[in-house]
Every structure is written in C-alpha cells, then in structure tokens.
Amino acid sequence: MGSEAGTEPPRRVTIRDVAARAGVSKGAVSLTFNDRPGVSRATRDRIFAAARELGWSPHLSARSLSSSRVDTVGLAIARPARTLGLEPWSMEFVSGIESVLVERSCSLLLRLVRDVREEIAVQEAWWRGRQIGGSILADLRDGDHAVRYLVALGHRRIARVGGAPGLGHTTIRKAAFEAAIREAGPGGGRTVATDFSGEEGARATRALLASADRPTSATGPRWRTASSRSWTRRPPAPIRPPPRRSLRGAARPRRVGASRDARWPRPEPRPVNDGPNHDP
DNA sequence: CAACTTATTCCATCTGCCTC
DNA sequence: GAGGCAGATGGAATAAGTTG
Description:
Elements: H1 15-22, H2 26-33, H3 41-54, H4 60-67, E1 72-78, H5 81-84, H6 88-103, E2 107-113, H7 116-128, E3 134-136, H8 144-152, E4 158-162, H9 168-184, E5 189-193, H10 198-210, E6 217-220, H11 223-226, E7 246-249
Parallel strand pairs: 1-2, 1-3, 4-5, 4-6, 6-7
The structure holds a DNA duplex.
C-alpha cells in the first residue's frame, strides 16, 4: 500500500520517547514501570505523567524478547466449538483460569481442537514458537503425565490439593498421584484434603505456602482449587508464592496438565502421548 | 547510599557486502 | 545471480557503574 507524499505513518511511542519526555534514562523508566527500587517518588510521578501524555505502555513482544518471558498461557481443548458453551464445567474452567491470569496481567491463548493428539501438537507448536510461556494440558489420559512433566521442569516438592477423603475418585487420584511421585524419585509429594470449594482450596494452598518445606508446584482436582487465588494473589506477609511454580488443576472428570514459568530452563519437548509431532 | 545512567543482553529478521 | 556470512535492528530488562 503506497503512502501519500509527506504523510508518514505515526511512529510507535517507545520507552525512549517516555524517557526523553520525563528527562530521564530508559533505565529509569524501566525501573519505574517494573516497580523496582532506585527511582525517587518525584521522578516516578514524572515518568508516569510522561507515559500518560504519550499513551505509552510496555511493548509485550519487546518485553518477552529481553526477559525471555511470555505472559501468555496456552490452552487447547478437544471439544467441538458448538458444545463448549453447553458444558458448565468448561465455562467455569476457562473463567477460573482467566480470573487468575487477569490478576497477573497474563493472557490466555485458547484453541479448540479435535482430539488429544491435536491438542498436544498445538501446545508443542506454541511452545516451540515461544507464543506461550506456560501450558495447561487438558484431557491427558492418565494423570501421572502431569506429575512427570512437573518433575521434568525441575520440581521436586509437588503438592496436591485434593478432595474430601473417602470419596472413590478422590482415593483413586490420590493413589495415582502418590504412585507418580514415588516413580519420580526423591523429593516427595503431599496431599491436602479439601471439600472442593474455592475457599477451602485457597485455605489449603495458603497453608502449604506457609510450611517450611513449601511445594514448588501444586496440582488440584479443579482449577479454582489448585490455583485458587492464594497462588497468584500476593499472600499476607511474610508468605510469598514460590518464585518458580507450576499450577495444575483438573476439572472433573478430566485431568489437566501443567503450566510453567517461562523463566525455567526450557525442557526438550517430550512425548506426553503418542503423536505425529515428536522430535527424535 | 540513594538515585540515576550506561552498556549489555535477548533473538528473529532484514540488509548489505563479499565470493563463486 | 545465487549463496553465505556479518552486522544492524527492534524495545525492553537488568547488572554494573557513576554521581552527589
């Protein structure tokens, strides 16, 4: 498309423009917008004012480039589009994920696929293309894949926020989880029982975080239970979320896999299921 | 020591230069 | 002209250095 003579497209406002407007360096702008110390209150106010005037906010791609972090989580669901809205758990599942991601200024990349094989292929393609910094793996046929994956990421203390003891499916999942933990080797896992409610999940998770040997990752029977707020919302001091953590949740009756922090060493793509897309 | 600047780094893509 | 290579580019984060 040709441009008319003398009408250049407007140039994108960058951190450099904000720095120039505020009369500081790019570094000071970066420190300010990342809420890091080293910039006075007055200078921060000046930088925020300059950014407002210019309508600037951090460029996500550039941020990903420098920090090796992608603030997008991928979710591929093997479900026909027309039935998705008819399944209450699906909508609750997605909305639960969103409620957590929004608090962390993260985005959800959602795609509907035909089957588990395609789901895994899509996730791996996203991952290879660095389109996502974390994955939510749904529809795995057997739950210990997720635990294996967490172990592959480097997690050695994995907790499971489970349902009420005595229920059949709770017992089965607990046994599967413990078997996978044993197989993974030294480190160990713990299961905390809840009544499946978000409040109970939050309480249990908070208790895990407060413990001396707090887990580096957690799994749960439902996304809202596993992730429920306490992992993502800043907990009361001095408890802080583990700097590197993975969340996993499962919405009945399916199992859900792992998400990961992009700052972790990137493991080689590994077979989760048999599929056409595996590297040798 | 707080407040700030500078230099380096990230990595896919593009451009320019050189050789065959 | 084709192919290969080196260097520049984009925007932001951050470690290290500087200033008062």
